[in-house]
Design goal:
Keywords: Calcium, Hydrolase, Metal-binding. This is Sulfatase-like hydrolase/transferase. InterPro entries: Alkaline_phosphatase_core_sf, Sulfatase, Sulfatase_CS, Sulfatase_N. Belongs to the sulfatase family. The protein has 125 residues and is mainly α. The chain has one domain. The longest helix is centred in the first third of the chain and has 10 residues. The chain starts with 6 loop residues before the first helix and ends in a 16-residue tail after the last helix.
Length: 125
């Protein structure tokens, strides 16, 4: 068996940190992801009068669980500083417009079968 050398990855591994424990703000994926993207607890991402209830439950169509438009996400902050941002894999946090992509995932993947939709999502400038 032939192995490829990867000096940059090897260096990253030798100088990196191993985290043995991790904690989340909520046991289900959508609320936990909203915390990672915003730095807020899930119940802080909405719930004021005339706002969505917040990302306190699983995100799916018509669930009612969604972040309020006022909530700023990490991708928004990075993009404002000139970084290119994109979504890789499953987002599962509503609304998708909170992530500053010019098109929704369904517009990118409308030509693909449901089985292959999570394979690629291009970066936006």
């Amino acid at each position: 068996m032939t192995f490829q050398t990867s000096s940059y990855i090897d260096r990253l591994a030798s100088e990196g940190i191993v985290f043995l424990n991790s904690y989340v703000t909520q046991a289900s994926c959508s609320p936990s992801r909203s915390s990672l993207f915003t730095g807020l607890y899930p119940h802080q991402t909405g719930g004021r009068p005339n706002e969505p209830v917040g990302q306190i439950g699983l995100a799916y169509n018509n669930s009612g669980y969604s972040m309020a438009p006022r909530v700023v996400t990490l991708p928004q902050l990075l993009k404002a500083q000139g970084y290119r941002t994109g979504i890789i894999g499953k987002l599962h946090v509503y609304p998708e417009t909170s992530f500053n992509t010019t098109r929704t995932r369904s517009e990118y993947f409308s030509h693909l079968s449901w089985r292959s939709r999570s394979r690629f999502f291009p970066c936006e400038r």
